[in-house]
Design goal:
Rossmann fold; alpha/beta; 2 domains; 12 helices; five-stranded parallel β-sheet; globular; single chain; seven-stranded parallel β-sheet
C-alpha cells in the first residue's frame, strides 16, 4: 500500500515505517511542521519517500494517516489535490495524546465522522476521549528494539522530555527540583537546552540514557511516553508518576510508581545507590516491554486495520 502521513511524531513514525508499505511524507522547502520530510535524527528505511505538494496531488494514495486537526480540516485535502480524506481516499485519524480540560468536554476533533477510524495509542486515551459515532480502535505502541544497553556506569538518573518549558506541568518539569534531591538528574530531549538538557540523535540518546542507573518519568498527563518504553527495552529500571497508561505498562518488579513525590525521590536515590537491584529490575522491564510493545505485533495490527479501511 501507499500511505500518506505527515512527520509529526518521530519516534512513533520510526516504528510505523518499518512495515512493508511505501510511506509518502510531505516536504516543503523550509521543512516546517507541515513539511518536515524524512527524519534527520531517526533511522528510516528507503520506503519512506518525500513528496512535494505537486507530487502528492498527482500520486495514487491507498490511505492517508491523519494526526492533527489541521490535516482533517483542509491540509490533507489540499495536498491530495482536492481528494477528501474518508470520502475519496480511505483515512485513519491517529490520536497520540490524552485530552485536556473538563472530562465532560473532552470531545475529539474527529468525533461523529463515521467515514473515519479513530485510532488511540492507549486504552487510557480511548477511555477519556469522546469520539461520538466515529469508530475507534486501540493499537498500542510498538518499539524498534534498541537492544540491551544498560551499563549503570553513571550514578545519575535520566529524564527525557520534549518542549520541557512550554509543557512544564504536563511533562512534570516543574517537579524536577523536588525529585532532584541529590542533584543527580540529567535531562534530555528537544527544547531542553534552556534548562540544562541536551537534544541528541536517537542512537546516541539511547546510549546516554543507558549509562544512567535509573529512568525517571515525571509526566503528569500525557500519552504513554515512547521514551519510557525505550528505557525499559534498554534494560533500565523505571521510577514514574502513577498516572495515565503508565500504571499498565510498568509492573512493581520493573519499577517504582507513585503519586507521592517523596516516594519517587527516595526510589531514585535508592536505585542510584544500588545498581545491582537496578539491573535486576531493568531486565524485568525489558522483558515486559518486548512482550507487550514489540514491533511485530504493532505492525500486524496496523496492517489489519489498513487492509480493512482500504477495502
Amino acid at each position: 500500500m501507499r500511505i500518506l502521513l505527515w512527520h509529526v511524531h518521530g519516534s512513533w513514525t520510526t516504528a510505523f515505517v518499518q512495515g512493508s508499505h511505501e510511506y509518502l511524507v510531505p516536504v516543503t522547502p523550509d521543512r516546517g511542521p507541515d513539511g518536515r520530510g524524512r527524519a534527520q535524527t531517526w533511522d528510516w528505511p528507503p520506503s519512506v519517500v518525500e513528496v512535494t505538494p505537486t507530487d502528492a496531488a498527482q500520486v495514487d494514495v491507498d490511505a492517508v494517516l491523519l494526526q492533527r486537526p489541521k490535516e482533517l480540516f483542509g491540509l490533507a485535502e489540499r495536498w491530495l489535490g482536492g481528494r477528501k480524506p474518508g470520502r475519496d481516499v480511505p483515512a485513519v485519524y491517529l490520536e497520540h495524546t490524552s485530552p485536556e480540560g473538563l472530562v465532560s468536554e473532552m470531545r475529539h476533533p474527529a468525533a461523529d465522522r463515521p467515514e473515519l477510524t479513530l485510532v488511540h495509542v492507549t486504552h487510557f486515551n480511548d477511555l477519556f476521549w469522546d469520539a461520538g459515532s466515529t469508530p475507534t480502535r486501540v493499537i498500542e505502541h510498538g518499539i524498534v528494539d534498541p537492544g540491551y544497553r544498560y551499563t549503570a556506569e553513571l550514578p545519575r538518573a535520566a529524564v527525557v522530555v520534549n518542549e520541557a518549558l512550554r509543557r512544564g506541568r504536563v511533562t512534570g518539569t516543574d517537579l524536577l527540583p523536588r525529585l532532584n534531591g541529590d542533584g543527580r538528574i540529567d535531562v534530555f530531549g528537544m527544547g531542553t537546552e534552556r534548562i540544562g538538557g541536551e537534544a541528541l540523535p536517537q542512537a546516541r540518546l539511547h546510549d546516554e540514557m543507558a549509562r544512567r542507573r535509573v529512568y525517571l518519568h515525571p509526566v503528569r498527563w500525557t500519552s504513554l511516553g515512547l521514551s519510557l518504553l525505550e528505557a525499559m527495552e534498554l534494560g533500565m529500571p523505571v521510577v514514574a508518576l502513577a498516572t495515565t497508561e503508565v500504571v499498565e505498562a510498568v509492573t512493581p518488579e520493573a519499577g517504582v510508581l507513585s503519586t507521592n513525590v517523596d516516594v519517587l525521590r527516595g526510589a531514585v536515590r535508592e536505585l542510584i545507590a544500588d545498581p545491582d537491584r537496578g539491573r535486576e529490575m531493568g531486565l524485568v522491564a525489558r522483558r515486559i516491554a518486548l512482550a507487550r510493545y514489540g514491533l511485530e505485533r504493532f505492525l500486524a495490527e496496523w496492517d489489519k486495520l489498513l487492509t480493512e479501511v482500504a477495502a
